[in-house]
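Why Terpene synthase? Reviewers of the renewal asked for a concrete example.
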Amino acid sequence: MGPFELPDFYCPYPARLNPHVESARVHTKEWAREMGMLDDPEIWEERRFDGMDYGLLCAYTHPECDAVELDLITDWYVWVFFFDDHFLEIFKRTRDVAGAQAYLDRLDLFMTDDPPEPENPAERGLRDLWARTVPGMSDLWRERFTRANHELMQESMWELFHIEDGQVSNPIEYIEERRKVGGAPWSACLVEHAVGAEVPERVAGSRPIRVLTETFADAVHLRNDLFSYQREVEEEGELSNCVLVVERFLGCDTQKAAEITNDLLTSRLHVFEHTTFTELPVLFAEQALLPHEQEAVLLYARGLQDWQSGGHEWHMRSNRYMNGGGRTGFHVSPRHVLGPGGLRNHAHVPYRKVGHLPLPDIHMPFQARENPHLGAAREATLDYAEAMGFYTMVWDRARHDGYDLALCAAGIDPDASLEGLILASDWLSWGTYGDDYLPVVFGRSRDFTGAKAFNRRLSEFMPLDLVVTAVAANPIERGLADLWARTAEPMSPEGRAAFRAAVEAMTESWLWELSNHIQNRVPDPVDYVEMRRRTFGSDMTMALARLAPGRSIPAEVWGSRPMTAMTAAASDYACMMNDLFSYQKEIEFEGELHNMVLVMQTFFDCDLPRAAELVGSLMAARMRQFQKVAEVDLPALLDDIDADAALRASVADYVGELGDWMAAILRWHRECRRYDESTLKGTRWVPGPTGLGTAGTRIGTLLGRVAS
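Here is what the prediction returned.
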């Protein structure tokens, strides 16, 4: 008997079977034997191989390709499953961390034009497949596929580390890391190969394409976690499974955890559909994609859709997993339509009276510090706002004074000079004013076209040569032009370009929020967390941190898993903190949809105290992760690369900045008057949809350091 009954899966697309399934089965079995994959019965033997039926998997997931292509794709899946089982047997069971890393590093050599002689079936298979796959594909595709393959292999170490220290991830960490180790981005690259259509380079990095790929990845992995729980958790001692993650995080039984995991799977599929039908047409029009380019994107989307439905059918038939009792074929129940990700996400009634939200316990291990120039910065940022015209609409001086944004900046960078602190405070004022300005101008009218035009113009006030030729037409443009001139001058040309791109990523994310308001759509939890970092300015966190004077951290350290995980954890902690304090302001007074408490209420269909408790638990989990990375993972990384004292000091300084940042933001939320009910009731304007929160907080600290 299994550990739980399989839940009611959302299967909105009928699976189709490739007519070349039998020839793929015969071919791939011979190929596996030739590569030596059937030589060790402790890993695979013929009967088990036949029962896993990878020919059926690929015939279902790639129903339209010809026989030669299906053979190639099936061989790739045989290789990746063998790699997974071989790694389990040789390294996970033995906990051989050093041997595992050496094994993975050597596999990278087989994704080149001049590979070494293979020493095991995984190397032999990868060398053969690489030579059969990359000819005829573009350099961009090859680069993406190499990266996906590398991450798939290297992230197996993440699973091994979790087994080694007995650690179960928090839900946010798990979703992000599972995308890499689970291999779905790798599968998405093979979808392009199988359908014979590459996503055009000029839109490959766009939000719609990114969301299609990521929702595909999440749904594939969540489905696999449900089917593989018994094998992975009960038989192999695996800790990287979403059902287990939910069990541990919520303290619920396995059946309930499986149902919640399936709800998230359903929600991610709805986001895939929503993106296909509402964001792709806009992308086609804005980028003026030619007919053949549009066709390539749609073939890719349909290929991902086929993989979803076909993958489900295979899971129901393969002996690799528990699969009794589930449904096959097309299946859509009322809960799939009405529940998480469906109509429930469009049913929120704005401007409900919710009252003050009792806050959960907020764990803060860092102490906010003070900057001696706070008094002068307070007055200076009020003068800046008046000069830029902030008080002609939306704000007045008294309201701005009550927000006390200089207090936030002073705690974020307690060591900044007066000039640096004023610049940081002005950036906070600009970002927060934008939070209030956009709803007034574009939110109530739902003027999406005007908002996009407004957003495009902002780049004109951040010229790389520092020569602004555009004439500011509103306080936002006037303020940005002033800040850019004061901020970008000491930066290198490369630094300016990176900074501007990060600002643009933040302002473009505001359009996503406006689009959701037009559709009255509460975001999916995963989409919300990841987009909230952009609306909060987290991309600028990394961009500006690299520009801080005296900072000498190489790119490979900035891009390492510990560094990115630590930064994301700090960002999520601060974003959710803001959502707790601003709940009444946003839900009752602004009709907001972008708040983590509301997202939890909607997804779990729970009451407000439970939703706030869940947000508090996520914050605590992200803080624990931040501390663990800072105290264990980062030092281990620095030891591995034999970092010198200067690099260690620079990394320690960055870790300290993030601690200052989180502590300062918490103190500011507790002491400012932006979220007081009396302030909210005295407001003379009706904000609407942006939810930018403290979008400028992290910008301010690092810009202050640049100025200093």
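The radius of gyration is 26 Å. This is the kind of structural detail the renewal will allow us to pursue systematically.
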